[in-house]
């Protein structure tokens, strides 16, 4: 085991804790642990094919942490520092690319082929994320806009759009291409508007000079003799480009111009091949009562000129971009509120690097926004379902000795099981969620499985928590597969990671707060969330489906107990001497 592989469990656990708590210390811990690895390139380049796959998984996790952290601190850190985090993520992807390309392509394992396609795409997307960050900093006056930098941003957005349309249009499910395209369409007018405004400002300043005929003549002759400012800049830039591209890896420049050299180095290596792809995304935990505070914080963080009104899964944080991996989710609909960036999920969602999450469904809105403020519909009663879950728990532990934590863990797992069954029905139905690889039921089902692992007595050990997640992933493999971002014949062979893959997928979707709650309280919050995110018909179907699953499961346990009891009964004369 190499050092990077040795910390993989730690990286996974910290990332999981971050998505549950949104505490940045877990991202920092991962970043610090990764930076402490010595001789990283030698370790990766010398790995066997089997070990390389594990190393790459660690690098993917670290890259996501870098991007998410960059978007999380973009309002408090200097732009150079923020850009630096994104570039460290790019270096992770480049190392994956280099290591896999170094292997003979004739017998490249499918898993490595998938990892190569995925890392190539993220390398390309990192340029887009840097452009979005630069645009964000211009909007909040952290970076002074210039015609050159704005033109670079526009060219990057348009270039990425062209790549998505021409080379990745068949990979919508894996890379959320439609969401990315929609986000580009939102950001392009912003960049173009800033450029137009800047040009008009420059033009008006020039027009304020009251030039006499003699002055005009002099100025004209000067213009003939001297190149324009843009020409001078372009000339200087071209002279620097070759050296910049060689030095880029060791430098963190605050301007998007430096991203141009990044683009040059990354694009040179990105020869996208039509390989099968595995993509991952991610999510913050937050109760419905915190949605208003979340929206206010997002509004403070984003001061863009045009208000963005979008629908999002309740609880979703607002951002530009995910890998946080991902535009991986949805934005909260609010009046006069701009999306805040988070990685595209890596585009951490609402704001970008995580560009703003795209509205995928009108039924997703969990909080209704009005000009007067936020309000929530009255919660629907859930007492019969809570009673059914309690009855199942009592039946299950009737002949077993277990502590409070173990009982809570199993009850949450059973509720998750019921929701996973309903998520399959939503996906196969002809309604709002038909054919989609995410819906509120699967999102909460995955969250409950994680909370079940946390409640398990083994959670006190990090390794125990990771092992518990792997067991749950294996146990519910068939119910998780339909929501993985790959086709059936592209599924990874390691079923232990299916659950963690979905945890990453839903990283940027804010879910109900279940921390420290009892099972009945958790049930209440879960179905309040579902009520806010499903239309009435779907909610009733999910509720009744879960209730029926619990009732039937309890009957099965009782019947089994009765059968065992009757088999153990002996005739009365057996005890006679």
Q: What's the structural blueprint in terms of helices and strands?
A:
Layout: H1 3-6, H2 8-21, H3 24-35, H4 40-45, H5 49-72, H6 79-101, H7 110-139, H8 147-167, H9 172-175, H10 177-207, H11 213-225, H12 229-247, H13 256-269, H14 291-301, E1 368-370, E2 373-375, H15 383-396, H16 404-428, H17 440-455, H18 462-475, H19 477-480, H20 498-505, H21 519-533, H22 536-568
Antiparallel strand pairs: 1-2
Structure description:
The chain has 577 residues and is mainly α. Among the domains are: 3-200 and 256-269, no CATH class; 383-563, no CATH class. It has 22 helices and two strands. The protein has helices at residues 3-6, 8-21, 24-35, 40-45, 49-72, 79-101, 110-139, 147-167, 172-175, 177-207, 213-225, 229-247, 256-269, 291-301, 383-396, 404-428, 440-455, 462-475, 477-480, 498-505, 519-533, 536-568, and strands at 368-370, 373-375. It has a two-stranded antiparallel ribbon. Strand 1 (368-370) and strand 2 (373-375) form a beta hairpin. Helix 7 packs antiparallel against helix 8 (147-167). The radius of gyration is 27 Å and the shape is globular.
């Amino acid at each position: 085991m190499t050092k990077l592989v040795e910390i993989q469990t730690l990286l996974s656990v910290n990332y999981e804790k971050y998505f549950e708590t949104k505490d940045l210390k877990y991202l920092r811990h991962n970043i610090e642990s990764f930076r402490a690895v010595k001789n990283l390139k030698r370790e990766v380049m010398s790995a066997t094919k089997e070990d390389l796959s594990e190393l790459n998984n660690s690098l993917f996790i670290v890259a996501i942490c870098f991007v998410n952290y960059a978007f999380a601190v973009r309002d408090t850190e200097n732009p150079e520092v923020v850009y630096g985090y994104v570039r460290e993520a790019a270096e992770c992807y480049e190392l994956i690319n280099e290591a896999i390309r170094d292997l003979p392509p004739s017998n490249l394992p499918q898993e490595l082929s998938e990892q190569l396609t995925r890392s190539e795409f993220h390398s390309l997307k990192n340029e887009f994320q840097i452009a979005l960050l630069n645009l964000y900093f211009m909007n909040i006056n952290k970076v002074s806009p210039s015609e050159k930098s704005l033109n670079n941003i526009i060219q990057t957005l348009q270039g990425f759009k062209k790549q998505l349309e021409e080379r990745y249009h068949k990979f919508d499910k894996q890379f959320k291409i439609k969401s990315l395209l929609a986000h580009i369409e939102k950001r392009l007018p912003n960049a173009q508007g800033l450029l137009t405004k800047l040009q008009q400002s420059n033009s008006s300043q020039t027009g304020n000079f009251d030039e006499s005929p003699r002055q005009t003549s002099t100025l004209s002759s000067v213009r003939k003799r001297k190149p324009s400012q843009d020409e001078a800049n372009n000339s200087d830039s071209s002279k620097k480009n070759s050296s910049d591209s060689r030095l880029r890896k060791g430098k963190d420049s605050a301007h998007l111009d430096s991203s141009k050299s990044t683009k040059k180095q990354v694009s040179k290596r990105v020869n996208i091949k039509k390989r099968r792809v595995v993509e991952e995304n991610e999510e913050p935990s937050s109760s419905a009562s915190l949605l208003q505070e979340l929206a206010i914080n997002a509004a403070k963080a984003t001061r863009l000129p045009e208000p963005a009104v979008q629908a999002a899964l309740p609880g979703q944080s607002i951002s530009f971009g995910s890998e946080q991996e991902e535009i991986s989710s949805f934005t909260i609909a609010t009046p006069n509120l701009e999306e805040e960036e988070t990685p595209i999920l890596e585009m951490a969602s609402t704001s970008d690097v995580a560009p703003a999450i795209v509205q995928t469904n009108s039924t997703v809105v969990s909080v209704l926004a009005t000009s007067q403020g936020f309000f929530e519909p009255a919660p629907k009663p859930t007492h019969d379902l809570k009673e059914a879950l309690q009855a199942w728990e009592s039946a299950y532990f009737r002949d077993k000795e277990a502590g409070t934590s173990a009982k809570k863990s199993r009850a949450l797992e059973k509720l998750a099981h019921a929701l996973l069954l309903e998520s399959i029905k939503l996906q196969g139905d002809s309604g709002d969620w038909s054919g989609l690889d995410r819906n509120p039921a699967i999102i909460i089902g995955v969250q409950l499985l994680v909370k079940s692992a946390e409640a398990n007595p083994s959670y006190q050990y990090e390794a125990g928590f990771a092992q518990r997640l792997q067991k749950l992933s294996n146990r519910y493999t068939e119910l998780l597969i339909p929501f993985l971002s790959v086709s059936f014949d592209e599924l990874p062979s390691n079923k232990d990671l299916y659950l963690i893959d979905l945890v990453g997928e839903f990283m940027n979707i804010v879910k109900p707060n279940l921390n420290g709650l009892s099972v009945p309280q958790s049930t209440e919050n879960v179905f309040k969330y579902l009520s806010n995110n499903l239309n009435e018909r779907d909610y009733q179907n999910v509720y009744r489906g879960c209730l029926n699953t619990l009732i039937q499961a309890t009957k099965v346990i009782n019947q089994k107990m009765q059968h065992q009891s009757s088999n153990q009964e002996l005739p009365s004369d057996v005890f006679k001497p």
